[in-house]
Every structure is written in structure tokens, then in C-alpha cells.
Amino acid sequence: MSAPRGAAADHHPDSTATVPAPGIGIDGARYGLGLAQLPLPGGGSFYSHFGELLGYHAWAGATADGSRTAIVYVTGDVTGATMGAMSALIEDGVRSAGSAAVGRACHAH
């Protein structure tokens, strides 16, 4: 298992321990205790959780040190295009300061 260093890991190291998770369908993904550790294009990673219930879909992400977070919430049927848009918004939100597109709205059809 791999556990990051940072605020979350310092307080609850077991909550961020992950193992390889090829079943997620994202190259380099890791998973443990409800959190996925997903790679960022260009390097680095972030912690993430996706949930859905009765037509509502939410995807949250955060850096290991908690300095950057992002949440995307959608309603309706989630298509591949919607998942791609949600992924792009989460990745933008958890990148280092200065490169994030904050407050973007996206409509996938």
C-alpha cells in the first residue's frame, strides 16, 4: 500500500492508504477505503470519490495536503461525454494554484 504525506495522511494515515485498482478503468488508479487516488495528466495525483443516487451524480477531489479541492455535481443521465467533462473539471480544480479554471460551467450533450 502507498500512503501520501500531508494533512490528511498525518491525521488518518489508514484513510489514504491505497492499492492498485485496474478495475476503475483509469490507468494508474489506486483505491482504498472509499477513496480513489487518480493520476493527473502531466504528473501528480489527487484523491477522489464518485457517488450517484436517483439521477444525482457527484464527484469530489482533493490534493493529499488538502490545499486544493473540487466538487462537481450533475443531474440526469451520465454519458461518457458527461463523465469526461466531470473529470476535466475535477482535474482543473485540484491542479496547483494558477492553472485551475475556477467556477466553470459545463453542459455535455
Jot down its keywords.
109 residues; disordered C terminus; alpha+beta; six-stranded antiparallel beta sheet; globular
Polypeptide structure, described:
The radius of gyration is 14 Å and the shape is globular. The termini are far apart. The chain has helices at 7-11, 80-94; strands at residues 19-20, 30-32, 35-39, 45-53, 56-62, 69-75. A hairpin with a 6-residue loop joins strand 5 and strand 6. Mean pLDDT is 78; it is low at 98-109. It has a six-stranded antiparallel sheet, with helices on one face. The protein is built from two helices and six strands. It is of the alpha+beta class.
Count of alpha and pi helical runs: 2
| Structural class by SSE content | alpha+beta
Return residue spans where pLDDT drops below 50 for at least 5 consecutive residues: 98-109
**Radius of gyration using CA atoms only:** 14 Å
Average pLDDT score: 78
* Outline: globular
Question: How many β-strands, per DSSP?
Answer: 6
Largest sheet strand order: 1-2-3-4-5-6
Q: Would you list the SSEs in sequence order as H and E?
A: HEEEEEEH
Biggest sheet: strands, sense, closure? 6 strands, antiparallel
Strand residues, percent: 25-35%
Distance between the termini: 39 Å
As a percent range, the share of helical residues equals 10-25%
